[in-house]
Amino acid sequence: MRQPKSGTRRVPRWERTLLGALTYPGNIILGSVAVLVLSLGVITALPAAIALARAFASWTAQGDDKVFTNTFREFARTWRRTLGLGVVAVVVFGIMVADGLFLSFQLSQPGGSLALLFSAAVLPLSALACVYTVAITAAATLNTEANASTWIREAIVLMLGSPRRSLLVLLTVVVVVVTCVLLPTLAPFAAVAVPVYVGVRCWGPRPPVNTEQD
Known about the structure:
By secondary structure, the protein is mainly α. It has 8 helices and no strands.
């Protein structure tokens, strides 16, 4: 009788490609869930985003795709250094929301030209604040043992040193905001994770280059 062939089944290339492609949305969704859980304290929202960025960096640079568990692990390592940033971020976000609601109300009233003028100033500042926040999360992936003050300074360097990447992050933020407004159910799974992921890919650590020759 013919003996059955031993050994593992060779996975077709298309199947490997498909599974690899599914990893990206899967990890982004799982990372978003981790951020939602960690953000229940409100002031822990930015610390959770920083932890997610570091988990994304481990995935993109080192191949560690356990984004969900790594986000909790990184949060445990960094929350004491980033809690102050979280408080400031909540205050700034609250001011931005209040300004937005006030300007929206004023624009709906007759003679809202002055509100329109203020909107022209508030919107660019809000966009700049969003890009800067993403840059802070990316800076935390480069100098992992530094403190929050160092990450704040390095985020400015990242923004000014690579305007094209800053523009890409800005476009990502705009697209995500518009998409979440049109499809609110996507907000919990995209509002934070997608800009943070793009920020890590733009400014975060690069995977090691394999210089070995075959």
